[in-house]
Design brief:
Strand order of the largest sheet of chain B: 1-2
Radius of gyration of chain A: 15 Å
Distance between the termini of chain A: 10 Å
Number of helices of chain A: 4
Structural class of chain B: mainly alpha
Number of strands of chain A: 9
Helix content of chain A: 10-25%
Radius of gyration of chain B: 20 Å
Number of helices of chain B: 17
Largest sheet of chain B: 2 strands, parallel
Order of helices and strands of chain A: EEHEEEHEEEEHH
Number of strands of chain B: 2
Helix content of chain B: 55-70%
Strand content of chain A: 35-45%
Number of domains of chain B: 1
Order of helices and strands of chain B: HHHHHHHEHHHHHHHHEHH
Strand order of the largest sheet of chain A: 3-4-5-9-8-7-6
Distance between the termini of chain B: 29 Å
Oligomer: heterodimer
Largest sheet of chain A: 7 strands, antiparallel
Strand content of chain B: under 5%
Chain lengths: 151, 318
């Protein structure tokens, strides 16, 4: 499967392999999972005092920390649940919706939504970052773009 | 259930026998649960607390770590996170096994000497003088390579966990500035115990020059390099030497900055460690050799780092 991702903001774009002004073509693995680096395109962007710093980019998974004024306040992640039926099934019981998507609390510090085959998770690392903040930051992901990725 | 567990109760959760393990048949929880809560390594690391006051919590129980890293309390949720972390560790493609492996290989402690040193304690202090005959200070070239091997190991572990190319020096240096907790203490140990104490205040320049003059053959003969050679990027020895030199160059500015930002000096380090080791200030080369053989501070904190990164990921994937 080949994914075409427009306007990808790849942090380590290698100019020789990934020219800046053309579409970024990422080859997915044999199992159909997306590389972590190409998931970064769907994350919220830096804004004002807020910085998004990528920390783990694996096949079918990407994670970043969200910093405010240089201090870590939350973790942001996207995880491919295409092979995680039990994980997807949890959302069937959802009563909460964020941006029209089935959403759930994960423990007392996490909020997740299922966007297509991807679980988008925001977890508080600092008490100042509330559940409302988590819901707001989930909506800063490109949830539509994630849902549009082919199954 | 063994007789011991039957009589005294088992502290550890019973693992699903189906849970996957690494080549040694171990889980990440096994490695964390076996870390010592005391001993020379822990004392040495505690002496560096002033670099990151109160940040290093010597967690030696995986379940406590799951709670601390996630801030969660619900037992079912914690158990789910634990299982996910164990699964992620067991998959070699995820990079955590390699990370842990390099930390283990780069840092081989002589446990017998550490035990003997503790047994000889007078009051709270280990007497360095009583071990001089068992210690051989390293030549500067060997120490320079050993220092750079630990750095290389940190770069490899960082890139493996982050899932980025092995030569991402720029990303690594940026991340170093944000190291905290056990990772920051590990870097303080690197600079203090493998830099300042054995090589002196100008260790960065000394090591840079030493590495600049190093031949591929000299690198190949180094015992520490031999242990981690297969993980060092590069097809041929010359490429691996380039990687070591470039890796060291890329962090040398950060190391000098770390020394000045934390007001680190040979005197300060020996003064702090003097709380635990008597005679630390007189014979620096022997103190360096003693710390080298009696501690595994890199492996100890490296294991804690790997486990906490795993947990930090696992909680997002349950």
């Amino acid at each position: 499967m080949v994914l075409l991702i427009g306007s990808a903001s790849c942090r380590r774009a290698d100019p020789q392999e990934k020219p800046a002004n053309i579409e970024l073509v990422e080859e997915a693995s044999a199992e159909g999972k997306v590389s972590g680096g190409s998931l970064n395109a769907f994350f919220p962007k830096d804004e004002g005092d807020w910085d998004v710093i990528y920390t783990q980019e694996k096949e079918g998974f990407s994670q970043a920390k969200l910093e405010k004024d240089g201090a870590e306040v939350a973790t942001l992640s996207v995880s491919d649940f295409s092979e995680n039926a039990a994980g997807r099934a949890k959302f069937e019981a959802s009563t909460m919706k964020i941006a029209g998507l089935a959403a759930q609390a994960r423990g007392k510090k996490g909020t997740v939504v299922l966007a297509g085959r991807f679980q988008v998770s925001v977890r508080s690392k600092d008490n100042s970052f509330t559940e409302d903040d988590r819901k707001a930051w989930i909506q800063k992901f490109d949830l539509t773009g994630l849902q549009a990725l082919a199954n | 259930m063994g007789l011991f567990d039957f009589l005294f109760g088992s502290k550890k959760p019973v693992e699903d026998p189906q849970i996957k393990r690494d080549e040694e048949g171990r889980t990440i929880a096994n490695y964390v649960d076996e870390l010592p809560g005391s001993g020379i390594t822990v004392l040495a690391l505690k002496s560096l607390d002033f670099v990151a006051p109160g940040q290093w919590d010597n967690i030696t129980n995986f379940d406590s770590m799951v709670k601390k890293v996630t801030g969660e309390e619900d037992p079912d949720f914690l158990s789910e996170i634990r299982t996910k972390a164990l699964e992620l560790y067991a998959d070699p493609a995820q990079g955590y096994q390699t990370g842990l492996n390099v930390y283990q290989l780069v840092d081989k402690a002589d446990k017998a000497l550490g035990t003997a040193a503790l047994a000889s304690k007078v009051g709270e202090k280990v007497k360095l003088l009583s071990f001089l005959d068992k210690l051989t200070p390293k030549a500067d070239t060997t120490q320079t390579i050993d220092l750079s091997m630990k750095l290389v190991c940190e770069i490899i572990a960082f890139t493996k966990v982050n899932g980025i190319p092995g030569d991402s020096f720029g990303d690594f240096v940026k991340a170093l500035a944000e190291y905290e907790g056990e990772a920051k203490i590990r870097m303080a140990g690197l600079i203090a115990f493998d830099g300042l104490v054995p090589l002196g205040p100008d260790f960065v320049e000394k090591a840079r020059n030493g590495l600049g003059n190093l031949s591929p053959d000299q690198l190949a003969e180094n015992t520490t390099f031999k242990r981690i050679e297969r993980f060092v990027p590069g097809n041929v020895l010359g490429d691996k030497l380039d990687f070591v030199q470039n890796g060291f160059d890329s962090v040398s500015g950060w190391m000098s900055g770390f020394v000045s930002d934390n007001d680190l000096s040979v005197g300060k380090v020996t003064g702090k460690i003097g709380d635990y080791i008597e005679g630390a200030d007189g014979k620096l080369d022997y103190l360096g050799a003693f710390l080298d053989v009696s501690t595994n501070y890199f492996e100890h904190t490296g294991t804690q780092s790997m486990a906490s990164r795993l947990i930090d990921r696992a909680v997002n994937e349950v």
